[in-house]
């Protein structure tokens, strides 16, 4: 029997509902004996199913079904290189470990699920989070930690709350996270942008903004910035905190991927002012499971009452079951083991990406990058537009993101694409970058030809 026969056999069983998400597949040895074929044939079939995101493997446990949707399987049978999707690498996610934690949480908190929980978050989880944050150089107490239904909830609430400085406007890095800009728009706040690039941030310009524009808070992603991937130096972080203290500005530090930072000497801005001037926000979505929808915010006591009222109005409390499961996952040491694997995985991908950029990206295009291997951008040579390249690459089954929506109007750029390599297999990264480079070259040639014909 050929490995393709085994592959299509399982696709058929999944399509017909005979195998459902979570079902375990036969072991390689058992299936090879059953089908009278070699173990290598079975391994190759399982490997192909895993590449197409149909199944996933759990070390020392076996293979399990991820998806039963025919459309999903059909879509993934194409040779797609997906730089667009920004979720964590699904092959590296702790599905089975977290399932065990969910089962334990059901047993441990079964009585508590019939009542409303603490708005601030499960106390045992907040105690564990305080210990966890110490590894990120964030030293605080459980009483200042608030569990949120994803970090975006915390950001949205903080935009709306009155702050002790009595100010109203918001300063944010450019480009930046789309969700935060949408929160600003929905609440009718005035936004002031400050550019972030390979040279860091213009601190003199930032001081002018703080000084003259009634700035309530400054939003910053200091590690592995979205979308550029850049990180601020400790010196820059310290100076930003000093400016905030001088001009009575609060800081929201969105450390959504701080867990991936392998630099033990890198400090969050929170470390330079733990009194409450720096509001620390963290998510578990990008490093663990997006569907978990849990994050945290470390708040000063002066914001406690207003924040709890806003949180209660939003969803009363974050889901107790997932809070309990996360507590068990952190307490057991599973999270630390998982993060070690993630750091190694994304670091390898980052190196491959940067080498591919150096080898293939043409002069005139400017690329960014980071050690996290999660986000980076390519600024296309003028006069190319990101929209043109996005559409062109779709023909090649390469998907990238148009970063235009990540800019305020006064900072608008229509020639920047964002790449995330979290979903791209290591072996396909260079091929994908090469296709991007070829796409840039093709569009430039077409433009030259059009101009030449028009002159005639």
Q: Can you walk me through this structure?
A:
This protein is α/β, with parallel strands linked by helices. The chain has 3 domains: 3-77, Winged helix-like DNA-binding domain superfamily/Winged helix DNA-binding domain (Arc Repressor Mutant, subunit A), CATH 1.10.10.10; 97-334, 3-Layer(aba) Sandwich (Aspartate Aminotransferase, domain 2), CATH 3.40.640; 336-455, Aspartate Aminotransferase, domain 1. The protein has 15 helices and 16 strands. Strands 4-11-10-9-8-5-6-7 form an 8-stranded mixed sheet, sandwiched between helices. The radius of gyration is 24 Å and the shape is globular. Residues 69-77 have low confidence and may be disordered.
Structure in a nutshell:
This protein is of the alpha/beta class. The chain is globular and about 75 Å long.
Describe how the helices and strands are arranged.
Elements: H1 3-15, H2 28-35, H3 39-51, E1 55-58, E2 62-65, H4 70-76, E3 81-82, H5 95-108, H6 123-134, E4 145-148, H7 151-160, E5 169-174, H8 178-186, E6 191-197, E7 200-201, H9 203-212, E8 215-220, H10 234-246, E9 250-254, E10 278-283, E11 295-298, H11 304-315, H12 320-331, H13 334-360, E12 366-367, E13 375-379, H14 386-394, E14 398-399, E15 401-402, E16 416-420, H15 426-455
Parallel strand pairs: 3-14, 5-6, 5-8, 8-9, 9-10
Antiparallel strand pairs: 1-2, 4-11, 6-7, 10-11, 12-13, 13-16, 15-16
Helix pairs in contact: 1-3, 2-3, 5-12, 6-12, 7-8, 7-11, 9-10, 13-15, 14-15
């Amino acid at each position: 029997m050929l490995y393709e026969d085994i592959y299509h056999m399982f696709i058929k069983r999944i399509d017909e509902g005979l195998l459902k998400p979570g079902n375990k597949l036969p072991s390689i040895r058992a299936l090879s004996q059953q089908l009278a074929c070699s173990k290598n044939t079975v391994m190759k079939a399982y490997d192909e199913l895993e590449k197409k995101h149909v199944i996933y493997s759990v070390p020392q446990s076996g293979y399990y079904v991820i998806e039963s949707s025919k459309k999903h399987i059909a879509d993934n049978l194409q040779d797609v290189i997906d730089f667009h999707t920004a979720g964590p690498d699904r092959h590296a996610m702790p599905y089975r470990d977290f399932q065990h934690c969910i089962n334990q949480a059901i047993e441990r908190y079964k009585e508590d699920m019939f009542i409303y929980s603490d708005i601030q978050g499960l106390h045992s989880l907040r105690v564990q989070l305080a210990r966890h944050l110490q590894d990120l150089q964030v030293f605080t107490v459980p009483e200042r930690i608030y569990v949120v239904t994803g970090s975006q909830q915390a950001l949205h609430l903080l935009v709306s709350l009155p702050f002790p400085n009595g100010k109203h406007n918001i300063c944010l890095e450019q480009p930046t996270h789309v969700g935060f800009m949408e929160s600003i728009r929905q609440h009718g706040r005035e936004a002031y942008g400050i550019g972030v690039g390979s040279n860091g941030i213009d601190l003199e310009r930032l001081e002018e903004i703080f000084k003259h524009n009634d700035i309530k808070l400054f939003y910053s992603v200091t590690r592995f910035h979205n979308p550029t991937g850049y990180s601020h130096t400790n010196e820059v972080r310290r100076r930003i905190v000093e400016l905030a203290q001088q001009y009575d500005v609060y800081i929201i530090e969105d450390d959504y991927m701080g867990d991936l930072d392998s630099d033990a000497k890198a400090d969050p801005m929170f470390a330079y002012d733990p009194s409450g001037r720096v509001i620390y926000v963290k998510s578990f979505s990008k490093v663990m499971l997006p569907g978990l929808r849990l994050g945290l915010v470390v708040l000063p006591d002066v914001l406690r009452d207003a924040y709890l009222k806003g949180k209660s109005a939003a969803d009363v409390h974050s889901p107790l079951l997932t809070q309990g499961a996360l507590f068990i996952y952190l307490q057991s040491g599973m999270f630390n083991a998982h993060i070690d694997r993630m750091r190694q995985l994304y670091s390898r991908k980052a190196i491959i990406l940067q080498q591919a950029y150096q080898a293939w990206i043409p002069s005139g295009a400017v690329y960014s990058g980071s050690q996290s291997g999660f986000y980076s951008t390519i600024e296309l040579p003028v006069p190319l537009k990101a929209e043109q390249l996005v559409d062109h690459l779709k023909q090649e089954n390469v998907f990238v993101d148009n970063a235009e929506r990540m800019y305020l109007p006064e900072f608008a750029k229509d020639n920047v694409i964002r790449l995330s390599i979290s979903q791209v297999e290591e072996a396909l990264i260079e091929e994908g970058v090469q296709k991007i480079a070829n796409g840039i070259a093709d569009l430039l040639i077409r433009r030259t030809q059009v101009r030449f014909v028009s002159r005639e």
